[in-house]
Amino acid sequence: MLSNRESLAIAELLIYIPLLLVTILVLARHGRSKSLGWIYLFSFVAIRISGAAVAIASAKNPTNDGLDLWTGLLDSAGFGPLIMAGLGLLKRIIDQTSTHVRSQGQNKVVEVMKSHTIILRRLIKRFEEKTAANSRRSRLIELIQIPALIAEILCIVGETNTTESEHSQAESQIKASIIIFLVIYLTLCVLAIYSAPDISKLPREERLVLFAVFFALPLLCVRMLWSLLTVFGHLVPFSKTNYNIVARVFMVTLEEMMIVIVMCYVGFGVPKVSLR
Fold first, then answer.
1. Which site in 116, 135, 213, 224 is 20 to 30 Å from 233, CA atoms measured?
2. What is residue 109's predicted lDDT score, i.e. its pLDDT?
3. What average pLDDT score do residues 201-225 get?
4. Are 16 and 36 in contact (CB under 8 A)?
5. 113 CB contacts (<8 Å, ≥6 apart)?
6. Max intra-chain CA distance, the chain
7. Taking the C-alpha atoms of 183, 184, 185 and 186 in order, what is their torsion angle to the nearest 10 degrees?
8. Average confidence (pLDDT) over 90-104
C-alpha cells in the first residue's frame, strides 16, 4: 500500500510532467531573451518532477540515506525559482511601460515645444523621471538574482550538512536562506504594488501578466509561511521529516500548482515581446 507521501509524489508527477511540456512550449513561443519569468518557471517544474521521482524512490528504499538527502534538497530548492518567476514576469511589465514612456520623451516635435514652454518642460521631465524609475526597478529585479542564488546555495549546503555533525551550522544556513527569500518576496510585493498604476499604459493582453503576478502574491505568502513555520516554528505538523500531509497539500502543493498553471496560461495569452 502506498504511503501518503508516495501518493503525493505520484500526483505531482502526473501534474508536473504535462506542465513541463507546456513550459517548454511557452519558452519556445517567447524566446529566451525576453522570458526570464518562464525560464525560472521551467526550472521550478523540472525541480518538482525530480523531487517527486526521488521521493518515490526513497519510499521504495527507506534505508537509503542518500535518497532522503536528495529529497530534502530538491524540496527546498524549488521555492527560489518560483519567487523569481514572479519577479521575471513583473520585469516584463516594467520593461514594457518603460519603453512606452521612453518613446514619448524622444519625439522631436515635443523636444522643440519643450524648449519653448516651461509647463511642457516640467511635464516631460516627469515622464523622463518615470522612465528612469522604471529602469531602476527593472535593474533591481536583475540584481535580485544574486541574493536569490546565494539563498539557494545556503539552502543546499544547509540541507547537506544536516546529515553531518554540524547541525547548528546547518540550521543557521537554512534560516539565513529563508530570511533572504522572505526579503525577496517582500521586494516582489512592493514592486508589484508600485507598478500597479502602470496598468493603464499596457496593451490589453499584457495586463494578464500583471494579473498573474498579483494572483501569485497571496499564494506565495502561504508558501512562505510554510517555510517559516518549518524552519523557525518547531511545530510537529510542519516538521521537515514528519509533517502533516494535509497541511503540506494545502500550504505548499496546491499553491505551487495554481501559480504554475496560471503563469503557463498567461504565457500562451500574451504576445511575444519583440527586441528593440
1. 213
2. 41
3. 91
4. no
5. 120
6. 82
7. 50
8. 67
Predicted confidence (pLDDT) per residue in 51-76, tens digit: 999 999 988 887 777 888 888 888 88
* Strand residues in the chain grouped as ranges (E): none
Give the span between the Cα atoms of 188 and 87, in whole angstroms: 6
In contact, 51 and 74? CB cutoff 8 Å = yes
Confirm if 16 and 52 have CB atoms less than 8 A apart: yes
Helix (H) or strand (E) holding 242: none
What are 113's three cell numbers?
515645444
CA-nearest of 97, 91, 98, 189 to 140 is 91
> Which pLDDT score is estimated for 48?
95
Spatial distance between the Cα atoms of 44 and 4, rounded to a whole number of angstroms: 23
- Helices 118-161 and 79-105: angle between axes, nearest 10 degrees: 170
User: For residues 272 and 205, is the Cβ–Cβ distance under 8 A?
Assistant: no
